[in-house]
Each structure stands twice: as C-alpha cells, then as structure tokens.
Design a protein that fits this description.
The protein is built from 14 helices and 6 strands. With 309 residues, it is α/β, with parallel strands linked by helices. The radius of gyration is 19 Å and the shape is globular. Helix 6 packs across helix 8.
Length: 309
C-alpha cells in the first residue's frame, strides 16, 4: 500500500504574507516550497505575478514557479499530478513540502480529487469556442454569470480558457461547475495537508496591494508584458489572462493609458482578494493566524508531523 503524502499548505489572499510565512519555516527546518498559484507558473511573468525573488529562492528549493510557456494552459488535474511529484521528491530528500499560493481549486484537486464530469460533446465545445472567437471573453463571462454566478464570480472576465470550460460544462451536462465541484470525492487522493491560513482583512490588504503594483511597475512590469507579447502575439493566450497581464497588455496594445491600466489592475486585484477571502473561509481544518503571529508556525508544523509517527 502506498504511503500517504503529507505537506504543509499556506493559504490566504494575495498580499497577505504567505511567502514570508513559508520562509519563516525554511529558517527552522528543511523545506521545499511548492507553488500552487495558477499565474506564477508562467515563465514570462516573474514580476507581474509576484514570483519569489532570487534572494527568497536562495533560502530553500522552490518548485513549479515560472516553468510554463505563455501559450500553454494548465489544468487542476495536471497541477495535482505535478504537485504530487514534488511532494514525493521532497519527502524522499528529507524535506517538508510547503505549498504556497492562492488558487484554491488547485488545493482541492490535490487534496480531494476532481469532480467526475462526463465528457463534453465535441460540437458543444466547438460552438463555445466559436462564440469566444467571435464575441470575446467578456460576453461569454456575462452569459456565465447568468447560468453559474458562483463560478463567474471567481473567474477574471479575460480568462478565456476557464470561462469556455465552465460554459461547455453547463451546456453539455445541464449542471453548473459549482454543482459538480460540490460532489467532489473527498479523501481519495492519499494526500494529507496541514493547512495554515494567513489572516488579513480586505481593508488591511488594499494599501499593500497598491504599493505592490507600484513596485512591479518600477521593476519593469510593462516591459515584461511587452516582451512576452512579442514572443507570443496572441491576446487570448492563457498566460495573458491573469490579473495584471491582461490590463498591462491593453496598455501595450495602445488601448488605454498606463494610469487607467494601473487603476484597473488594482480594482481587479482587490476583487480577486475578496473572492479568495470568501473561498478560503470555507476551507475546513485551517489553522488561522495573523502575520504577526507566525512565530508559532514551526511548533505547529512539528506537532502535526509528530502525529504521523
């Protein structure tokens, strides 16, 4: 019988200090940080997606950051497979795998598995993609908001891949993704997580997010997006659908001023943080702590690890 996989998972909204919490653990025990953020996987956007900086990566191994081309899509199923490989490798090396990120669906896929959604008829998928090409993602996002408002609320209006998937499931099965996810099989993956939440209110996050965007712009976020578009000149490429990338690309393409793009970027980041707060509040078995209380994390993780012995 295969031994269960165990990992620490640090969760919380964007800008709450999850990376700092992981590095705190790395100073007290051998740690491998494993990314579970769906935007930080893209190689072309280390600045815009706030991937760990070189001095942070130097403190311990970091996995699943900046490895995917802009034109390639990632699924929750593929992420779960990649994460399991990294968790296994960390354990074999005598290290604690620490998941860090903000994509709640990836955590659920890893911990509980995926919903058994039946195959979608090819003609349904083709019809959705044809509409996407003709009308654009915003129009289909508006349609999704009518049929599956919960899924639409967690998706960016430019996220063509996930909007199309949600619509094809709705049309092909007559049920929403929200309903399918509610029936996910729990406990079948053999993965056990020690979930630690970094707590922060939306009002506390806003000034941090505002300052972080300014820092990204000063580090060359616009040039990063421009260079990525020169390499992959396809607006609907999966890598461009993330918050920050989509807004700056509109500026790069001459559709808006930098000031307007920045304002939109902040607005969408705030909305994303709000969605994350709602999502993670529903997670079960989370040990919540504020950033100033993170000193107790090493003891909490050691106690959890000792329970397995």
């Amino acid at each position: 019988m295969t031994a269960p996989l165990r990992a620490v998972c640090i969760l919380g909204p964007t800008g709450s200090g999850k990376t700092d919490a992981a590095l705190l653990l790395a100073r007290t025990m051998p740690v491998t940080v494993v990314n579970y953020d769906s935007r930080q996987i893209y190689a072309d956007f280390p600045i815009v997606t706030a991937q760990p900086e070189p001095h942070e990566r130097a403190q311990c191994p970091h996995e699943l950051y900046g490895f995917l081309p802009t034109a390639e899509a990632m699924t929750a199923a593929r992420f779960a497979e990649l994460a399991r490989e990294r968790i296994t490798a960390a354990g074999e090396a005598g290290r604690v795998a620490v998941l860090v990120g903000g994509t709640g669906l990836y955590v659920r896929a890893l911990e509980h598995g995926l919903a058994d959604i039946p195959p979608i008829a090819p003609e349904v998928r083709a019809w959705v993609l044809e509409r996407m090409a003709r009308e654009g993602s915003a129009a289909l996002h508006a349609d999704l908001a009518k049929g599956d408002p919960q899924t639409a609320a967690r998706l960016h209006p430019h996220d063509t891949q996930r909007i199309a998937r949600a619509l094809e499931v709705l049309l092909g099965t007559g049920r929403t993704l929200t309903e399918w996810f509610a029936e996910q099989k729990r406990g079948a993956t053999g993965v056990t997580l020690c979930k630690i939440g970094v707590s922060a209110t939306l009002d506390e996050l806003l000034p941090r997010l505002d300052a972080r965007i300014d820092k990204m712009l000063s580090l060359g976020a616009v040039e990063e997006v421009r260079n990525a578009y020169e390499r992959t000149p396809h607006r609907d490429a999966p890598g461009f659908t993330g918050i920050g990338c989509a807004e700056l690309l509109a500026h790069v393409l001459g559709e808006t001023t930098l000031e307007a793009a920045r304002e939109r970027w902040l607005h969408n980041t705030r909305a994303y943080a709000k969605r994350q707060l709602t999502w993670f509040a529903k997670e079960e078995g989370v040990h919540w702590a504020r950033a100033e209380g993170m000193a107790r994390l090493p003891g909490l993780v050691r106690a959890w690890d000792a329970d397995a012995d």
